[in-house]
Amino acid sequence: MADPAPAPTAAVLVIGNEILSGRTQDINLRFLAQRLGERGIRLAEARVIPDIPDVIVATVNELRARYDMLFTTGGIGPTHDDITSECIAAAFGVPWEPHPEAWARMERSYKPGEFNPARQRMATMPRGASLIENPISTAPGFTIGNVHVMAGVPRVMQAMFDTLAPRLPGGTPIAARAVHALGASEGRLAEPLAAIAARYEELDIGSYPFYRPGGNGVAIVAKGLDPALLEAAIAEVTALFATLGYAPVAGEPAA
Amino acid sequence: MADPAPAPTAAVLVIGNEILSGRTQDINLRFLAQRLGERGIRLAEARVIPDIPDVIVATVNELRARYDMLFTTGGIGPTHDDITSECIAAAFGVPWEPHPEAWARMERSYKPGEFNPARQRMATMPRGASLIENPISTAPGFTIGNVHVMAGVPRVMQAMFDTLAPRLPGGTPIAARAVHALGASEGRLAEPLAAIAARYEELDIGSYPFYRPGGNGVAIVAKGLDPALLEAAIAEVTALFATLGYAPVAGEPAA
Hints:
The first copy, chain A, has 255 residues and is of the alpha/beta class. Chain A contains 9 helices and 12 strands. A 6-stranded mixed beta sheet of chain A has the order 2-1-3-8-7-6, with helices on both faces. In chain A, strands 10-11-9-12 form a 4-stranded antiparallel beta sheet, with helices on one face. The first copy, chain A, has a two-stranded antiparallel sheet with strand order 4-5.
């Protein structure tokens, strides 16, 4: 297979005090990680930061410069602690102003008199932003430059990402193959596994112990762009499991 | 109440390709966020990075310089993709060498001949590290400087943190009070809520819409060091809910 182009890179920035206080379990990172991988986009880093303007501005500028794409979640609602949108404008050095299309859509969605100043903030965006549709609750996200600004509520974020996804530059999807064995011990298989991993340096081969009601063991997951290489590496790991007296099973262990 | 000393700050660094690929849902961040808050330690930032040596070294050095404490999870097992420990040694510029006490403990825990080179790596640490007990599976974590290095498996990480916690410098515990109302709309309460938040600038007042089988609504959470201020702020929010025609309920909505 010809050398594929390097995968585009991305970072995820989760913005919200509620994640850093432990009030809320973030589930947006995993969703985005999976969807980006399916599209051949390499998620290189994720950060969680608080609702502090200087921190948001500096982190957005650092990450948008370092990676091909930046996805933010959180902080675009109507309340005083929703400050992501104006911070993105500050990061880009552009005015934060009513977005005509967002404004029109939102105004239509409220009864007369209910599109109040707080709700109008959700139609106020950095100049030059293009909208990310929100099929759940109207108030759109937006894209400016290589930064995609989405809601924090998982159902809304997921719907936004799915409308955005076709516009993203993609790469060769990252494929994965796995094999696992009950009763396997990482300490016993580590050395021969390292030798296999060294022979397949184009692949990312990970070893993951699991602890499940059905029994403990180890799963080996190989990821990469070339399916034939993946099959070959997993065949070697399968043979290694058998040599060590474990019964290899294709795929990941059932939850 | 006298002005409290500023809370010590912390960062959490989650190390592992499996989080960035979406294979694994991280639950360590939330656990650490909650426990740190209970001890009066302000979690200022969290990052998720891949198993790449240069990235680990650079990120550890950035975060340990910026915050009072750094907690890492992941990458201290016996396999080739477990590289956190040697990267921490590189970050501190110290040798990575057998830790006598960790070595003795681990050697005792295996049958003769089974403490192989892969397992010996788990007893190899940066010079000067002090151990963090592992009551679950023996192989210890460690502390060096202000960096606390723990396992990625949640059950092991949690047990490690609980043995470590009494040694951490603490602050005044961060207290929280909450009130919520079914049927409440952020867009209606945002403006008067912002006025309350502006009057209690020592507090962190957050607004969180919820979508539950029992009904949708909004929860307002106030956090801070002074319980009397928290009570006063939540009383004002409770009155605001009532003014808007919502039925306020103390605390957070049931899951």
